[in-house]
């Protein structure tokens, strides 16, 4: 009898024929910390926040978010929102290399640039989606401007400053690894890197041959010098909006995200641990992330089930029947996705939600 083998499948669901990505418009604004570039897709929708994304180190808004925002099922969501994709300074395509000695902004200063973007666009509130360093930047922004953030999707967030042990490990790795390899080790799991899939080859190539590698190193240094966000349950320093924490089940930042979950308000926070997604779920599992994002928006009252496909509606019904997602939750929700049968089933604290994927 033929043997069943597990195969790793990267989800691919491009736009349908006739579906064309909306026209993008790229802008730059001057801020007290230098200029920042961002790309806007779609038009502002009355009474709706903008979706604002912030990418991780080694990537830019396109290489970090394009597979997610161009995913077929994502279209029915994003057509309801204007999107602002921020490039950290010097990371935009064609960015000139900063002169030697250039003082790159700290992550806190990158967060302080966001009001200039929103003011320029005349947008009052956002739903943020950030990955790694970008998740930190959006969290810092949400701490200082809580009234303007309606929700946050934080992928691979590490809210802690590096401790001296981390620094020692970082220095040691630096002796034997190049900057691109260190950044790849931040983005992907060791298993993914040694598997050297097409995706890894593609991103290794992008980062190793980036004409702005010196700028990337500056963003990397700012990330490694980040301050502690100091989240604490019951403390004033916390995220006040609904938050969806996301991490791959073998991602390098799994422990940091688990710890972050334990420090945030459980009534406002969902935790999604994704199976088979490696370090970058938005690249490898855009379908599952799209579905989770849809539930997240629904919980915020933005995606009425009438806007959703029949399949999505039935999935949502199974989620809402197992747990309320109307914002009046009494405890945190953990979603973990098992690979077998593509089911989402809960882990501790014993609150079960099942979603077919
Ligand atoms: C968007 O529709 O927001 C989008 C499309 C392509 C790449 C990145 C974002």
From TrEMBL:
It comes from Ceratotherium simum simum. This is Protein NDRG2. Its main location: cytoplasm. Residues 320-357 are annotated as: Disordered. SUPFAM superfamilies: alpha/beta-Hydrolases (SSF53474). Keywords: Cytoplasm, Developmental protein, Differentiation, Neurogenesis, Wnt signaling pathway. Belongs to the NDRG family. Pfam families: Ndr. Signal peptide: none annotated. Contributes to the regulation of the Wnt signaling pathway. Down-regulates CTNNB1-mediated transcriptional activation of target genes. May be involved in neuron differentiation.
